């Protein structure tokens, strides 16, 4: 499991409570203070202090070669589209065929336009967590299958 933009670790903690072993989770967080908080709160968690939008370079520099799934809390609506597209393309290189990027967002539209990446992506709305404040939408992105 690769989590991009782990923040304070609320989602990371939920993953662990759902059964993901801490030693199977790698988080990428840009903010140094948040990285220290994550390391303190979740001993054994692999925390990479880096810009998650540049996941390809991060993976290369750290030896990260694959991920079963990518979970992104990055604010893709506030990111320039070219940077968001590049991040997704690089993340898909770490995933197995059929792998998915799970993106959570606070809007009602897909945070990354699935047609803007070549090859295009399949974007599926998974659901909304209404108990979160503000409510969060969850999207699954996969590489589009050839017709």
Can you give me a brief rundown of this structure?
By secondary structure, the protein is an alpha/beta fold. The chain is built from 4 helices and 7 strands; from the N terminus they run E-H-E-H-E-H-E-H-E-E-E.
Summary keywords:
about 150 residues, alpha/beta, Rossmann fold, 7-stranded mixed sheet, 4 helices
Written account of the structure:
The chain has 147 residues and is of the alpha/beta class. The protein has a single domain, classed as Rossmann fold (3-Layer(aba) Sandwich), CATH 3.40.50. Helices cover 27% and strands 24% of the residues. It is built from 4 helices and 7 strands. The protein has helices at residues 10-17, 32-41, 55-62, 81-94, and strands at 2-4, 26-29, 46-49, 70-72, 101-105, 121-129, 136-143. A 7-stranded mixed sheet has the order 3-2-1-4-5-7-6, with helices on both faces. Helix 1 links the parallel strand 1 and strand 2.
Blueprint of the fold:
Blueprint: E1 2-4, H1 10-17, E2 26-29, H2 32-41, E3 46-49, H3 55-62, E4 70-72, H4 81-94, E5 101-105, E6 121-129, E7 136-143
Parallel strand pairs: 1-2, 1-4, 2-3, 4-5
Antiparallel strand pairs: 5-7, 6-7
């Amino acid at each position: 499991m690769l989590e991009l933009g782990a923040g304070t670790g609320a989602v990371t903690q939920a993953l662990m409570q759902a059964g993901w072993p801490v030693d199977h989770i790698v988080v990428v967080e840009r903010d140094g203070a948040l990285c220290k908080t994550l390391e303190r709160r979740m001993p054994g968690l692999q925390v990479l202090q880096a810009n998650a939008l540049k996941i390809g370079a991060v993976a290369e520099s750290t030896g990260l070669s694959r991920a079963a799934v990518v979970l992104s809390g990055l604010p893709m609506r506030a990111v320039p589209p070219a940077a968001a597209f590049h991040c997704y393309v690089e993340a898909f290189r770490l995933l197995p065929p059929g792998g998915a990027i799970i993106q959570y967002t606070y809007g009602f539209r897909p945070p990354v336009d699935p047609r803007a990446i070549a090859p295009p992506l399949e974007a599926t709305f998974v659901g909304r967590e209404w108990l979160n404040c503000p409510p969060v939408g969850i999207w699954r992105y996969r590489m589009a299958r050839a017709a």
